[in-house]
Amino acid sequence: MRKFVRESWLILALGLVFATLLACAQTAFQPRIQDNQARALNEAIGLVVPGTVRTERVRVEGYDRDVFRCLAEGQTVAGWAVEAVGTGFADRIRLVVGLSPDARSITGLKVIENVETPGLGNKIAEEAWAAQYRGLDAGRPIVVRKRPPAADRNEVQAVTGATISSTAVTEIVNRALERVRPGLERL
After folding, report:
1. Does residue 70 have a pLDDT over 90?
2. Taking burial as the number of CB atoms within 10 A of a residue's CB, which of 48, 54, 60, 112 is the most buried?
């Protein structure tokens, strides 16, 4: 016991040194991290709302995340981009949902941040899987199925072996649309 107490100062000192180094690295790289996150968001907006030339951040009552009015050539509204965040299997999932100008249909989905299981759950970030959301009715809840979705239903097929991640994305989208659509209809 005495040996443990006598040598524990080294563990405490190393913990303090490494904590200080991590805090300094976080402070030093924070501007670069924020720039990369902003770039990823802007790229995602361009992908989920085709024809976007310029964006304007708008405030939607009842929604606490960013919503962007996407403008095309001639300043016409190309659609809306809605940022949404929720919890997946492993950690936080951050995504952008594109909506048509009348906010009635989904024009695209892009997962911009996730730490889901490599090779399984992180397939939610692949374009092939996210493309299932394109054209779905934004006014009805989207349902996740293990089988291929029916054409006349608001369904997506889960990633094989990653139903939790697939369901999490769909729940994030459903919650965001439920909260943001009434505000968009008033704009």
Report:
1. yes
2. 48
